[in-house]
Each structure stands twice: as structure tokens, then as C-alpha cells.
Predict the structure.
Amino acid sequence: MNAPTATELQALAHAVSNAHLDALEEETIFILREVAATFERPALLFSGGKDSLVMLKCAEKAFGVGRIPYPLLMIDTGHNFVEVTDFRDSRAKELQANLIVRSVEDSMKRGTVRLAHPGESRNVHQSVTLLEAIEEFRFDALIGGARRDEEKARAKERIFSHRDSFGQWQPKDQRPELWTLFNTKLQPGEHFRVFPISNWTELDVWQYIDRENIALPSLYYAHQREVVERKGLLVPVTPLTPARAGEEVVKREVRFRTVGDITCTCPVTSSAANAAEVVVETLGVEVSERGATRMDDKTSEASMEKRKKDGYF
């Protein structure tokens, strides 16, 4: 028997990859439909970032354009990249989806959010605005795009994550999930956070984006940007994040692995200009995207687990 050729091996690898992505997609669509069938007032958290866009693509396949049965909810810090918020609005319009935006700035006006200083990141304060939106619309399930490989605290969470009447997450009170059977019973005031792409990795997301030709905000691909090096990160130079005294501003070819509040989101050096090139680049990374690009995850006060217990995504 002759050894397989390089072309045959490549075809086999492609088939295996597609089978893996098909299984992940099928699971995600099942969970999205399960939420629609089980809960009375669910919503899909939609930031305009790559993970929520993958989830939205699966929702489009699950229900069809103009038929997604729950609204899209965005908690806006007021410090988001305009490329992302513009893309968020256009994608929601394309899908004829109901987009609800609630702002941390409105919570600040109400006095429910108080910053320690004007330059403080608003990212951690999204929890307050999110809980206010849950109370306003009486949501009983919020669908999020979190993945277990993002951060250690994410790995402790179930796909259907129970939250108490204060919106808090208790790791020891998570319910068993055996044979895709989910206990969705709720007491008054409680709700669930549901994570359909929990079993995806960053590499899976990019392979799926490449396969499905999913459009993303331009920040996800290589572009020239002024940055400064600070504590091992490349900090973008913007009106919200200016260079500090003694720092050298340099122009680098970079891309963002994750997008969020400008005050805490950093790019990485990259020449990847499309999803296929990002897939190749992702194969070689050793640090999670949050660990490599998020300034607010570097401190204990803003640790993911504490924030989740306080009601964060």
C-alpha cells in the first residue's frame, strides 16, 4: 500500500477539522434552541466581538434572519472602539434583530456606579448596569459568548450557570449537567447565564470564522497603530489611554485578539490580515487572549472569579 500523499493528508485533516467544527456548531445550535424553548424572557449578550459574532452566526442558522426569538443586549461602557459598536449596529440590522443597549454612563448618572477616579476602567462596572438591565426587562436567561479556555474561572462554570436573586454566581452551587440534561428551575428573581460556546477554544472560533466567512470588525486583523510598551503589554495610544511621561510612542503592525473597553484592551504584534492567517498564528500562541491583552485582569481586585460572583458576564 502506498503512503498517502501530502494532498490526501491535507484533505483528511480538513475533513477532521470540519467534523469537529460541525459538532461544536450542532451543540451550540441545540443550546440556543433549548434556551428559546425553556425560558420566557431570554436575551443574547452581543458586544460585536468575535465570540458573540460566532454565536450570532449559529443563532442565524438555528432560527433564520428576522426570526431570532430573543433580543440582543449590549452593555456599553462608553469607552468601546467605534469600529466595534458600528459593526454591532450593522450586524443587528442585517439580522433584523432587536438590539438593546444599556450604558455604564447612565448608571453613573443614576449614582449606582461611582468611579474611584476619572481614568478608572469602566469594564468592571458593567456588572451593575447588567443587573439593572436584568431588573428592567425581567430577563430570566442571558446567553453569553464565554469560553472555558479564556480564563481559569470560566472553566468552573456550567453551560447553564445559575445566578441567585442578587445576580451572583456561587461556584459550589452549580448544577450537574449530564447527558445534555439541564436543570433550569428558577426561584423568583433568579436567572441563568447560558454559555453555548463553552466547549470552543480560541482556535475553534477562528477556524469557524474562516470556514463560515464571518465578517469581523477590522481591529481583529493587522493594522498600523501607535502603541507604548507598558508592563509587558502593548498599550494603544488614544485620548483615553495617552502615553505617560518617559514612554516612547512607536508605530507597530498589530491586531486585537479580543476587543473591549479601550482603557483595558491591548493589541498584539501581528501581520495576520485574514482569518486563515490568524488560525496559523493562533496555533503558536502559549498565552490565553485575556492573559495577553487585558490590563484589568492583572490585578486581584478585578479577577474574573470575583467579578463573576458580583454579577459579571
